[in-house]
Amino acid sequence: MSATAAFIAFLQCEAKLAEDRAKALRTTAFIIEAKERKKRRLVSRPKKHTAFTLFVQENFEQIKNSAESASLESKDIIAIVAKQWAEMGLEEKQAWKERAASIKDADPNISQELIDIYVDYVDDPGEENARPKKKVAKKSVKA
Prior knowledge:
Protein name: HMG box domain-containing protein
CATH topology of the largest domain: DNA Binding (I), subunit A
Domain HMG box: 45-104
Keywords: DNA-binding, Nucleus
CATH class of the largest domain: Mainly Alpha
GO molecular function, one term: DNA binding
Low-confidence stretches: none
DNA-binding region: 45-104
Oligomer: single chain
Number of helices: 5
């Protein structure tokens, strides 16, 4: 093997090692970013008080503790409560809406307070924080 060929082989090995180190660094950076995103998601933000959520909060335990639905899962109980809500008249729903509005109006500063506290909260990281997609080289097809 000539000196030139040996030098080329050495450079190729070094390039491969550099690629492996870069890949390891990218992986580490991704893991650190994922942990940071998880910390932001773990923030316990208060639930919105809508008419439906208040209705569910009040009726969920009643249905769960009733004898006929003791063996039901939570999703089934929610389905029952949602069906009750759908069958409810407009006057009854309006009473729940007024109740939700009174809770919201009880503390008018809560909106700005929540904005200050949860400014970094991310519901869905979406595309901007998603893992970068690998670029796949297209293979050329010879005819």
